[in-house]
Amino acid sequence: xxxxxxxxxxxxxxxxxxxxxxxxxxxxxxxxxxxxxxxxxxxxxxxxxxxxxxxxxxxxxxxxxxxxxxxxxxxxxxxxxxxxxxxxxxxxxxxxxxxxxxxxxxxxxxxxxxxxxxxxxxxxxxxxxxxxxxxxxxxxxxxxxxxxxxxxxxxxxxxxxxxxxxxxxxxxxxxxxxxxxxxxxxxxxxxxxxxxxxxxxxxxxxxxxxxxxxxxxxxxxxxxxxxxxxxxxxxxxxxxxxxxxxxxxxxxxxxxxxxxxxxxxxxxxxxxxxxxxxxxxxxxxxxxxxxxxxx
Length: 295
Hints:
Distance between the termini: 44 Å
Shape: globular
Number of domains: 1
Order of helices and strands: EHHHHHHHHHEHHHEHE
Structural class: mainly alpha
Number of helices: 13
Helix content: 40-55%
């Protein structure tokens, strides 16, 4: 099973998350950053073009062998699906079509009862060896699907029900007109690109504690080009009202706040270090006692 991780519990802290206080300091020094707030008018066209690309790809993959279909899903389709998942994240911050009032920074980073990005205690205990962490990385998409149902379950909203109906209808149309292979291409790509895949390295790189005392990490490499700059993660949490396309400008304006913090240079290396380093594992996350469900 490999070497066991050395951590036996999460990193419990009793301070507020660091981004709100740093944002205040940065804005006092660089008030021009406020000009970067607001939606990106080009975002909807970029995301729409990616959706269209995937739809066109369905007409190609329907004639592929299963082996080549899996290769295409891992190397192409899964990357687009993963990028579109991050597009949803961008939309959740009202950065696609704008918002009528300033964004309130309601971050519950590390909250034991609200932050569904943190592994459950069962995950941390089960996947506490080198091989266990390898399996955990491969199974990440399933944990992201089902963990919120355990940590912070909520009844489905009207829009979520409508979205489910639309998705099922779209899937049924794919199968009816193109067969099962295109649908498999979409599903397999999503699962693979959220697991043991270079792009999926951002899941671990963002908040797993590779350096004690630091709970958010940025990555400034080329994979940002296809992930809406999600690698600029300290910048994103400091200024959630700034769209991904403008996050590099935040770093350019205030480099002394970001260049001195620990950062990752490779998401692939993040995956390797997470699996192989006994000091890192599902327990390597900062947690805070529940603050309550403030509105």
